[in-house]
Amino acid sequence: MKHAVIVMNLGTPAAPTPDGVRQFLKEFLSDPRVVEIPRPLWQVILNLFILPRRPQAIAPAYEEIWDCGLDGEPVTGSPIDYYTRRQAALLQERLQKSVAGGGSMVVTHAMTYGKPNLAETVAELREQGVESFTVLPLYPQYSATTTGAIYDQVAKIIRGQRNIPDISVAHEYWRNPAYIEALANSVREHWEQHGAAEKLLMSFHGIPKANTRKGDPYYHQCCGTAELLAEALSLPRERWEICFQSRFGKAEWLQPYTDKTLIAWGESGVSSVDVICPAFSSDCLETLEEIAVENRANFIDAGGREYRYIPALNARADHIDALESVLRQRLAADLF
Ligand SMILES: C=CC1=C(C)c2cc3[nH]c(cc4nc(cc5[nH]c(cc1n2)c(C)c5CCC(=O)O)C(CCC(=O)O)=C4C)c(C)c3C=C
Ligand SMILES: [Fe+2]
Ligand SMILES: [Fe+2]
């Protein structure tokens, strides 16, 4: 039997231009999993206020991260696209080697928004004779806004089909020891190279606070991840903090906010900070611009002296070990 693993991440514009960004944001921000404002009202806000302005404003930031060389890797195009492809290719090598009948194991990638999309990827693989699928969202922590959106897409694909494929979605993996170990290794290596800063800031992508009240477990999983990472590093509580970045719109999002925390630290005499973003499997606009550039300025302008961003796990071998471990556990269930 032919089995396919599809690793998935959020997606990115096709080009770092206002048009490319507009097309991407239109698809992404139209998903009711991402923005829960009632449709007619949201469509007006999106089409009248966001899509005419935001693409112009953020295209230059995309331009900055496009084709950037990172960690000696020749990143071409958008970093999230580059690393998601790399992760799939590296997992393909691992799984081909050791899963019984590995020749019939395909590992590929898809994006929730933009290209390549999940529906087309599944359709192509079925044409090639693939009968069963494991979808691995590259989100260590579950949120309805990310992993939930992928479940919706799977549901849409199978709706109306008679012979639906055997398909499962990995829900979350923040508790997997290999994932925590990869994060801890990346911090230890960073400390060996640069010395440890006074504080380690663990910055997660935010979501609206109301989502947590309505039952989204993301906040609790982020707190759990932060505690496991601190424990793996034997870091006392006063040396680290958790915070949430990338707030969008006027509603209250998860707190403490990353920018406000860094400004308060700079002002109160914290002199050095290391920042890690454990919810991002790949570097992307939200880490390379918002964290490595914008929030550095927030901290330094407020009086801080040293600010160092610890890269995402990207193509690190221990990251691929972690994803392989998550997949092997799932595959044991999915392949019987
Ligand atoms: C509007 C609501 C948004 C929610 C909810 C949200 C949740 C969420 N997002 C990620 C991961 C990524 N987000 C990225 C970019 C991005 N996110 C939003 C909005 C929401 N995200 C926007 C509008 C954008 C685009 C940039 C901008 O306009 O500011 C990215 C980077 C993509 C890239 O091209 O590099 C990632 C990755 C998570 C994990 C998450 C909830 C847990
Ligand atoms: Fe986002
Ligand atoms: Fe952002």
UniProtKB/TrEMBL annotation:
Catalyzes the ferrous insertion into protoporphyrin IX. It is an enzyme of class 4 (lyase). Keywords: Cytoplasm, Heme biosynthesis, Iron, Lyase, Metal-binding, Porphyrin biosynthesis. Its EC number is 4.98.1.1. NCBIfam families: hemH. HAMAP family: Ferrochelatase (MF_00323). It comes from Microbulbifer celer. The gene is hemH. It is found in: Cytoplasm. The lineage of its organism: Bacteria, Pseudomonadati, Pseudomonadota, Gammaproteobacteria, Cellvibrionales. CDD domains: Ferrochelatase_C, Ferrochelatase_N. It comes from the Bacteria. Belongs to the ferrochelatase family. It catalyses: heme b + 2 H(+) = protoporphyrin IX + Fe(2+); Fe-coproporphyrin III + 2 H(+) = coproporphyrin III + Fe(2+). This is Ferrochelatase. InterPro entries: Ferrochelatase, Ferrochelatase_AS, Ferrochelatase_C, Ferrochelatase_N. Pathway: Porphyrin-containing compound metabolism; protoheme biosynthesis; protoheme from protoporphyrin-IX: step 1/1. Fe(2+) binds at residues 205, 286. SUPFAM superfamilies: Chelatase (SSF53800).
